[in-house]
Amino acid sequence: MYFWVKFVLVNNRILVTGAAGFIGFHLSERLLKEGNQVIGADNINDYYDVQLKNARLKILKVYPNFTFQRLDISDKSQVDDLFYSAGIEYAVNLAAQAGVRHSIEHPYTYLHSNIQGFLNILECCRNNPVKHLIYASSSSVYGGNQKMPFSTSDNVDHPLALYAASKRSNELMAHAYSNLYNIPTTGLRFFSAYGPYGRPDMALFIFTKSILEGTPINVFNYGKMKRDFTFVDDLVECIVRLIPKIPQSNKDWDRIQLDPATSFAPYRILNVGNSATVELVRYIEIIEEKLGKKAIKNLMPMQDGDVPDALADVQDLLNEIDFKPSTPIEAGVGKFIDWYLDYYKVKL
Q1: In angstroms, rounded to a whole number, what is the distance separating the alpha carbons of residues 284 and 296?
Q2: Is 50 inside any structural domain?
């Protein structure tokens, strides 16, 4: 068992892109509470409910040590101006176009935001040196892999959708800049993040809303999928602990027996997951138990671009920060549902 030990990062100027997003909001609030100066950036696009994004921002704007810039990271001039004027010490890039299935229908959006946007962040870190760049990758990069658990030392050259390909591209781009310009970078492969203020396109949100409304839910792969669900507070704890843990060049890196997780450059990749799987049918049962209402299930085959199972090997993460996500799924789902009922004024 791993115990939660409060870790405090204080009095730094930290850029959080995607600050109005799910993870960016929670990270920004944690950093603000601990006395850091947080520069939040977000384009507030309409991929999902803008009111939810504004509700998150309203909470953050209460803090006097929070400043916000509405900008699109794919706009180079806007990002250049922000880095030039803000005196950023650390950068956490969480701005991206999310959604595996959405990337199948809208591929150009992912090149625009996830590739061009990330290039702009890297160029700004080159021209306005930061102590450490942390960026969001995704467990989806493991693609066609079936060896469990997924390890950062595994090959990830078989993505199943453009979203995964864009995130793998970010990892490769980061490595190039770490090598060429000595920019310390850490890529985090998030595994099924969930929690209060979560995105409306995520399964937990969709299932909760549909069960309450008495409408059917689509259960893909007939409910046999397994996921490594990671509660957002655990995920934020990992990021906060990693910010001052600046990656170093691995002087013993073997150029014959290649390890993709580390490098001769100041670069690393880490999994962030609960290192435990929950079957989709059990996930739905937990939501039903918390709501006291049964779901109407529409059992369906696997979707294109999806994977049947995902499980994180987090030993490298544990070695780095002496912490791993461990919130039980029952507790995490309960906290989300408590938030949902309060936010949307739903009475059971």
Answers
A1: 10
A2: yes
pTM recorded for the entire structure: 0.94
Can you give the CATH number for the domain in which 22 is found? 3.40.50.720
In-domain check, residue 305: no
pLDDT at 3 over 50: no
Average pLDDT, the chain: 92
* Beta carbons of 196 and 280 less than 8 angstroms apart: no
Kind of pairing between the strands at 226-227 and 278-279? antiparallel
Provide the token pair at 110: 């992912």
Considering its fold, how many domains does the chain have in total? 1
Partners of 310 in the β-ladder:
none
pLDDT band (50, 70, 90) for residue 252: confident
Taking residues 233-250, report their average pLDDT.
96
CA distances from 183 to 88, 108, 247 (A): 14, 28, 9
DSSP H or E run through 15: strand 13-17
> Of the residues 163, 177, 197, 340, which is catalytic?
163
- 132 in Cβ contact with 320 (< 8 Å): no
84 among known catalytic residues = no
Task: Convert the pLDDT of each residue in 154-196 to its tens digit.
Answer: 999 998 888 889 999 999 999 999 999 999 999 999 999 999 9
Going from the C-alpha of 75 to that of each of 79, 154, 211, the distances in angstroms are: 6, 34, 40
For residue 322, the enclosing domain spans 13-198+230-273+313-326
286 in any annotated domain: no
Check pLDDT > 80 for residue 9. no
Classify residue 70: in a domain, yes or no.
yes
> Do 166 and 143 meet the contact criterion of CB atoms below 8 Å apart?
no
